[in-house]
Amino acid sequence: MPELPEVETVARGLRETILGRRILSVRLNKTDFIDDPAAIERNVPGRRIEAVERYGKFMLLRLSSSSDNDSGASLLVHLGMTGHLVPKPAAAPSEKHTHVWFALDDGRELRYTDARRFGRMAYLAGKELRDELQRFGAEPLDIDDAEFARRIRGRRARIKSLLLDQSVLRGVGNIYADESLWCAKIHPARLGSSLNARQAAALRRALQEILRKAIHLRGSSISDFLDAEGEPGNYQLHHRAYGREGKKCHRCGALIRRAIVAGRSSYFCPCCQPAPRGARALPLPKRVRRLPPNWAESRRLSAGRNAKGGAARL
Given 2, 37, 87, 140, which residue is catalytic? Predict the structure, then answer.
């Protein structure tokens, strides 16, 4: 599912291509992912796209007002697992699973395509929009050390769960939680309240650096993610933990392991990220169970070296 860097990449692409365009008409296909299809059909035509913003894992297409009663009207869009929002020439054939067509005043259409329809689209304005956005936590790219520590260290919940909780931080998902925890040498099953100030600061720094680098590389394309131009991202080539079960840690050489934390697969290095009491990794897949003869010794030596280190460099 697209996370903060992927959604920011799409929002930036749309900002360059559709900002200022007027929506002439709306055509809908399947609508089970739309909060109120009639509200979109009734309220969106005739509006100009005045801004394209990211809010956590959502995009906000800010629309011009048609009256004093709908100030701040926006289209709220979540891409789900397979959603794409891309401008196309109106004459271009529509892809399979295209469910929304916004006809623009320059002869193009902004099309929403979603094979699994796990996304969301809603027309929101005024208090309804404000109430929706108030459900979400702090912006991870802007949060400072003090606020981050307050939100993380004051909770007796697993740190992985806190990073995924959209009411704590908006926009972080499984990929970038695992990557930042690996970088800061913190096990995903640690309690937030068990982190000291130095560890919390290291985690915040790692999270922000990783998110910014992922945005620069246009996100991670694990399966379905494409940007606003239909192109995949490149940050998956730089993953250090996520999806690397059974592969060597880039820092110490131990094998990356997987555990279920907060109901999600969590990838970590058992050497660099010491587990809290009771935390257990899942068995390695059969293809990697036969370890090289010198693995145990190299793991012991690596543990000694890394006990002195801080957060890893990206």
Answer: 2
